[in-house]
Design brief:
The protein is of the alpha+beta class and 191 residues long. It has six helices and nine strands, in the order H-E-H-H-E-E-E-E-E-H-E-H-E-E-H. It has one domain: Aminopeptidase. The structure holds acetyl coenzyme *A.
Length: 191
């Protein structure tokens, strides 16, 4: 996704980790324009993600990120667009307190790291960027995908999880979250 400003000025790393402060590893003071541009990138990606998932409204925006304790991993390709760079996609995660059902139908309270939104730009999907981003997050969080929960995963995302991490089938839940076989065995002691 291209923007009328230099993506490399906003994001120095190939993958940036953004939180409530909306600054990619810098101090925000005195940089309102930088922050406004980062917000534009997040808002545009969030809109595109909602459209791709046929959601009525964005679940990811700069203002939402500022008010929630989530983390957003943003992947850029710094060389494209004549060296100004493009935003390739993002992955948003956060901890959620969930009531889940194990294989026996027993209620378990847990607070796993959840995948809340995930998007790779149209035209560059199925090029391995999603895997690069997801693996970066797993390494950053030092987690295996089976200990995580997934908020309403789309068919493409379910196929992605099955292909790259052999995550299938899931344990049926009463809410929108999906967890996989092994979640209840490998769960870190978060409850
Ligand atoms: N149809 C079916 N499976 C797909 C598709 C597709 N159009 N695109 C990706 N996949 C799955 C397949 O398993 C594919 O392997 P294959 O090509 O051998 O069939 C695999 O992903 C490819 O892996 P990557 O190239 O690393 O994945 P990609 O860069 O495309 O990122 C993602 C995956 C994020 C799901 C991307 O396809 C996307 O943005 N889709 C639209 C938005 C979306 O559905 N996001 C998930 C929302 S649910 C949530 O966030 C909790």
């Amino acid at each position: 996704m291209e923007f009328p400003f230099d993506i490399n000025q906003l994001f120095s790393e190939r993958v940036s980790v953004l939180d409530q402060t909306l600054v990619a590893g810098r101090t925000s003071t005195g940089m309102p324009q930088l922050q406004a541009r980062i917000a534009t990138v997040i808002d545009e990606l969030g809109r595109a993600s909602a459209k791709a998932q046929q959601l009525p409204a964005s679940i990811t925006s700069a203002s939402k990120l500022q008010s929630q304790r989530h983390q957003l991993y943003l992947l850029k390709d710094g060389e494209s667009n004549g060296g100004r760079g493009v935003a390739v996609g993002f992955l948003k995660v956060g901890y959620k307190k969930l009531f889940l059902l194990d294989r026996q139908g027993v209620h378990i309270e847990a607070e796993p790291l959840c995948v809340l939104d995930f998007y790779i730009a149209e035209g560059v999907q199925r090029h391995g960027y999603g895997l690069e981003l997801f693996n970066f997050m797993l390494q950053h969080k030092n987690l295996e995908p089976v200990v995580m929960a997934y908020d309403r995963p789309s068919p493409k995302f379910q196929s992605f999880l099955a292909k790259h991490y052999s995550l299938t089938p899931s344990v049926p839940q009463a809410n929108n979250f999906v967890v996989f076989e092994g979640f209840f065995l490998n769960r870190p002691d978060k409850s």
